[in-house]
Backbone:
DNA sequence: GATGCGTGGAC
DNA sequence: TGTCCAAGCAT
């Protein structure tokens, strides 16, 4: 190991204890983190939190768990009810996938959220992050959990750059594995702690470095907090896009008690070509179904 | 690996 | 006000 690699590893290892202590004092009290939270509650939270802020998830998660306290309860419903209950959380395909995951859990895992990473990863809508997160947070396993928060903390504290690469790199996985404490429950706490640090302190915009427990160790701070100089991230347009059009159409169906007419849908979007394309894509995704009488409804 | 996929809050 | 972005996933 070279001198620089030795220094790198020592710096990285020094992050763990301060972050654990910081988490002990500053962790938010979130429903899915409580000791009595079920694995199902954790799984639902992870679906909802994909690309969605905690504040918007809280009320929907609460209502969801009241309505469907178990995977089997959700699996017994029509998928459209899941889409309806999803409300305006965004990315409604997640509701469909969560419903499909509940069905798979009911059919293939006797109604119990699986604990093995590979079983979780095989569920609809569960990728590398969500599988690792549920294994760690619901079952206390030792897993490398890499989300946007963790990746940003490591990019700054260890690599000395403001933002991580566009996609997860081999180096990040190796670093995550190196940092992970040996003891499984401690590893699981570290994973949630470093995520929380990214969410509350080491934020994308205006990080609160004054309150950071590892400021002294941070490579980005040591370098003078240089601005990001990588390729610009493409701005995600929304106004006038198919995504907005889909959102409008689906909102009409969510708010209607049953099927709606094509004429009703047409009032929500002026441009006919785009409207038809969006409606077609919603049907293709399974978020909307055409009824026998030519109307449209949730599945 | 690049795209498409919602929504609303913060500035 | 427009811009950015928030615990990703599937294709």
Residues:
């Amino acid at each position: 190991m070279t001198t620089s690699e030795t220094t790198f590893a020592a710096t990285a290892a020094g992050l763990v204890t301060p972050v654990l202590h910081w988490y002990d004092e500053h962790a938010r009290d979130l429903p899915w983190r409580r000791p009595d939270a079920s694995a199902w509650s954790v799984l639902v939270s992870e679906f909802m939190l994909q690309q969605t802020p905690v504040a918007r998830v809280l009320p929907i998660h609460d209502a969801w768990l009241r309505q469907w306290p178990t995977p089997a309860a959700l699996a017994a419903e029509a998928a459209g009810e899941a889409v309806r209950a999803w409300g305006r959380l965004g990315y409604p395909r997640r509701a469909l996938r969560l419903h499909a995951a509940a069905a798979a859990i009911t059919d293939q895992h006797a109604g119990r959220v699986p604990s093995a990473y590979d079983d979780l990863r095989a569920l609809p809508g569960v990728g590398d992050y969500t599988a690792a997160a549920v294994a760690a947070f619901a079952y206390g396993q030792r897993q490398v959990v890499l989300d946007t928060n963790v990746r940003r903390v490591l990019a700054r504290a260890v690599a000395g750059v403001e933002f991580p690469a566009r996609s997860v790199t081999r180096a990040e996985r190796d670093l995550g594995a190196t940092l992970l404490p040996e003891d499984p429950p401690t590893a699981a706490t570290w994973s949630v702690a470093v995520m929380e640090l990214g969410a509350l302190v080491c934020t994308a915009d205006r990080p609160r470095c004054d309150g950071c427990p590892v400021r002294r160790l941070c490579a980005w701070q040591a370098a003078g907090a240089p601005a990001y100089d990588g390729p610009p991230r493409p701005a995600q347009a929304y106004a006038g896009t198919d995504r907005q059009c889909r959102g409008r159409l689906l909102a009409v169906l969510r708010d209607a008690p049953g099927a709606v007419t094509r004429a009703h849908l047409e009032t929500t979007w002026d441009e006919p070509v785009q409207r038809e394309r969006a409606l077609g894509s919603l049907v293709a995704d399974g978020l909307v179904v055409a009824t026998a009488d030519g109307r449209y409804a949730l599945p």
Remarks:
- Residues 45-57, 90-91, 93-94, 97, 124-130, 133, 145, 147-150, 195, 198-199, 204-205, 233, 235-236 of chain A lie near DNA strand C (CB under 10 Å from a C1').
